[in-house]
Amino acid sequence: YFVLSLEMCKKKVQGRDYKIILHLDESVPLLLLFLDVGLRKREDKTKCPHVRPIRNFDLHQLLGSWYVVQYYASSEEALSYGCMRPVFFMSPDRLDVSMNFTYTFTDDPTGELLYGNITWDIPEPKRPSHWVHVRETNEGVYNTYVLDSDYKSWALLLHCAEKSKSPRYLSSFIMSRKPILETNVITYLREKLPRYDIDLSYMFPMVQNNCSVTNKGLGLDPDTVRTIIKQSVSKRRHPMKRVH
């Protein structure tokens, strides 16, 4: 449209064509900027952010033991957990991935090691980096995305829970195969998160020291230990639970 208008002006007003061209050339970028801002859709904070699948992602290489070295949750302004160590595995007869993990509460002076687990389905076999866990009635859908991984040293996970008429709940793990991950790698992975509405000022380092305290040291039988864990978790929030 602008090109046709300029050509017409050149033919009709030969003496002023350069001024007209300069005026329009200066106006076009500003006009396009206003159009871009006006047409940009406002993000729906009740839905999970759009995540592109990893190309050639190999889920089997991600399996095994990890350490969570940095942790974020949108509902928390301080780190509530320590010693979080997930182990990922798959079922031999189903397209799913499970995570068993241990963790402690930072406000527990005894450092009692607790246990949790979660299983996700893989809704699209061609997108094995996206997992979905459907919670109980009216508890919404829990999505997990593998954002990046080199498999042998580090991985970055994004968790997003959706519930009708509620803000989404985001959390993220920076994971390492060892208790400590290099600073430059952590920086590289952290820089990937703001695009998913992760506030890095609340992305906390998780120290993996003094994590050897287990329930076996209490001298209790397994049934009693399970009861104690259940009572403890009922009083404090499970790290994979959402809060609205």
Automatic annotation (TrEMBL):
GO cellular component, one term: cytoplasm
PANTHER family for the chain: APOLIPOPROTEIN D, KARL, ISOFORM A
Domain of life of the organism encoding this protein: Eukaryota
InterPro entries: Calycin
GO BP, sorted A to Z: lipid metabolic process; response to reactive oxygen species
Coiled coil stretches, renumbered: none
Provenance organism: Diploptera punctata
Name of protein: VDE lipocalin domain-containing protein
Family matches, as CDD domains: lipocalin_FABP
Gene3D superfamilies, A to Z: 2.40.128.20
